[in-house]
Amino acid sequence: MIEELRIRDLGVITDATLPLGPGLSVVTGETGAGKTMVVTAVGLLLGARSDAGAVRSGAKS
Questions:
Q1: Is 27 part of any domain?
Q2: 11 — phi, psi (to 5°)?
Q3: Domain annotation covers residue 14
Q4: Closest to 36 in 3D by CA, of 22, 53, 57, 54
Q5: Is residue 61 one of the residues assigned to a domain?
Q6: Which residue pairs from 1-4 have beta carbons closer than 8 angstroms and sit at least 24 positions apart in sequence?
Q7: Among 56, 57, 49, residue whose Cα is nearest residue 34
Q8: What's the domain range around 6?
Q9: What is the mean pLDDT of the chain?
Q10: For the segment 34-48, what is each residue's pLDDT rounded down to a tens digit?
């Protein structure tokens, strides 16, 4: 089970750590908060193709 998700320099997210508990985890937030980037990060973790355009501008790596 994935217990925590850390996202850095992806879209609007500079650095975020999301603790995930057992059961269902729900991502909610205002428009532009980065919900799609969280889903994108999970997709990348599972092997989805990456897009260089999704990397935050000015990221070192």
A1: no
A2: 60, -125
A3: yes
A4: 54
A5: no
A6: 2/45
A7: 56
A8: 1-18+33-48
A9: 87
A10: 899 899 999 988 998
